[in-house]
Write a structure and sequence with these properties.
By secondary structure, this protein is an alpha+beta fold. The protein is built from 15 helices and 21 strands.
Length: 506
């Protein structure tokens, strides 16, 4: 290890917990400090990882790129596949399906957004679904995939993508990366945390075998247990179960029985929803549900009855409380991943919230005596991100018109956050997609859910009435035609993987 540049600089960062959060943290910090600070990861083989975060959203590409990871090597190592969006089944109403694409709708061709022209065409009797103006959907519906082009003049530049991967293999991949850059793994189980008597900050952790590890700063990646941020520092938790009542999940893998689809599927059930995540070597399945409306055994039976082949392992049951820590950075400890809070994986945000937490931490990187101003800013930004993602997830439940079970009647009738209520009012009345700041999910994502769940604005932008209907109709038709032609020229998702990044599956 290099000597300290300054006596204020951190000499040792200790990460408690492995899994995706621990090794993403270790990899990113090791890349940033370049050997100038010792990094230790304490991980216990006795404690399993949650490992359900196998679906991601497009910003994961930036995280991997920042670390200099090769995409082909990464996909092979994690037995991954590509993701163009999420298909939602039975969410807005029974029998309804819609697609949340990655990328935008159509191309910019006027001062008014495309969806206002679509709304006018709909009012005139054109029943073409909005998703038919999405390049991501044009490819996904036929199980096609190719990387988008960088040429903004081409329709193939209008979509984006993310990945499905095995979270445990991703952690293993990043462990190798971090260890090559100086991070040290310690095997063992922590049994006690010791605080400084004067400051109340964390001094050391004690292992079951009696070893003690001191550090200047601690990263809590201990999952739901929140060993440091909660058990030791008593930070507190803000419970959001009244908005997001699902508090259980059961997960099981199975063999793939059909085409390798380039998207995640979320199917609404009577007391929650079921995920389907296709990887090269298997399909990940899970049932997220509200225990007040459905028993654990019933949930497991429902899941096993609705997977495409025989399970490859025994189902695993999880319990959680949706919400967030009251402070995500407290004293000399920052919580990353499940220790920081939990939002059900409906929008594949678990991995992203790890990524964004790490990115913020590096931007506000502390010295040996953390600056309260930077700590406050970290907590402010993290709170905002959690709340905005929360609102987007709540929208899926509240905007449903289903009334066939207790869960859906509850979520339709419940009061919602004021921030979400304002967004709903603006879109319902005038098709306006509004925001009071930078959000993870941009306008196309909100539009996909609004329209997909039949939140149809009462009017479209008046500017559209100043345009000739026949011209805009021809342009809309040309967008669909161009997208269909571009998708038709793409290889299938399975062929793309076979030719570029097929894993050596054992």
């Amino acid at each position: 290890m290099q000597p300290d540049i300054s006596p204020r600089a951190l000499r040792h960062i200790l990460i408690v917990g492995g899994g995706s959060s621990g090794w993403m943290s270790a990899a990113a910090i090791a890349h940033a400090v370049r050997g100038a600070c010792k990094i230790t990861v304490i991980e216990s083989d006795e404690i399993g990882i949650v490992g359900v975060g196998e679906a991601t959203i497009p910003p994961i590409k930036f995280f991997n790129h920042t670390l200099g990871l090769d995409e082909v090597a990464f996909v092979k190592a994690t037995q991954g596949s590509f993701k163009l969006g999420i298909e939602f089944v039975d969410w807005g109403r029974l029998g309804n399906r819609y697609f949340h694409p990655f990328g935008k709708y159509g191309v910019e061709f006027d001062a008014a957004p495309l969806h206002h022209f679509w709304l006018r065409a709909r009012a005139e009797g054109d029943l073409t679904p909005l998703q038919d103006y999405s390049m991501a959907w044009a490819a996904a519906r036929d199980d096609k995939f190719d990387r988008p082009t960088r040429d903004p003049r081409l329709i193939q530049s209008t979509f984006d993508y993310a990945y499905h991967f095995d979270a445990s293999l991703y952690a293993k991949f990043l462990r190798g990366y971090a260890e090559e850059r100086g991070a040290v793994r310690v095997e063992g189980r922590i049994v006690a945390t010791h605080l400084h008597p004067e400051t109340g900050s964390i001094k050391s952790v004690e292992m079951a075998d009696g070893r003690t590890f001191e550090a200047d700063f601690f990263v809590d990646c201990s999952g739901f247990r929140a060993l440091l941020i909660e058990e030791a520092l008593k930070t507190g938790y803000e419970d959001w179960t009244h908005w997001l009542p699902c508090d259980r999940a059961v997960a099981v893998p199975c063999a793939r029985a059909g085409a390798l689809t380039p998207y995640t599927r979320s199917t609404a059930r009577s007391a929650g929803w079921q995920w389907r995540i296709p990887l090269q070597h298997r399909v990940g399945n899970g049932h997220v549900y509200a225990s007040r409306f459905l028993g654990d055994d019933e949930a497991e039976s429902s899941l096993l009855a609705n997977i495409e082949s025989e399970p490859l392992a025994s189902p695993r049951r999880l319990r959680f409380v949706t919400g967030r820590r009251k402070l995500h950075w407290n004293k000399n400890c920052v919580a990353i991943g499940l220790a920081s809070g939990f939002l059900e994986p409906l929008k594949s945000t678990s991995i992203h919230l790890i990524q964004s937490g790490i990115t913020r931490f590096l931007a506000l990187f502390p010295g040996r005596d953390p600056n309260p101003i930077s700590v406050a800013e970290y907590n402010r930004l993290t709170q905002i991100e959690f709340e905005r993602v929360r609102d987007f997830i709540v929208l899926h439940y509240h905007a449903s018109t289903r009334d066939d079970s207790e869960l859906w009647r509850y979520t339709k009738a419940m009061s919602i956050p004021d921030t979400l209520a304002y967004k709903l009012e603006q879109f319902s009345a005038a098709g306006n997609i509004v925001s009071d700041g930078l959000e993870l999910f941009q306008n196309p994502s909100w539009l996909a859910v609004f329209i997909g769940q039949d939140v149809i604005p009462r009017r479209y932008a008046p500017l559209v009435d100043l345009r000739r209907a026949d011209e805009s109709t021809r342009f809309l038709e040309s967008i669909r035609r161009s997208m269909n032609q571009a998708a038709g020229a793409m290889p299938t998702h399975e062929d793309f993987i076979a030719k570029t990044c097929e894993a050596a599956i054992r």
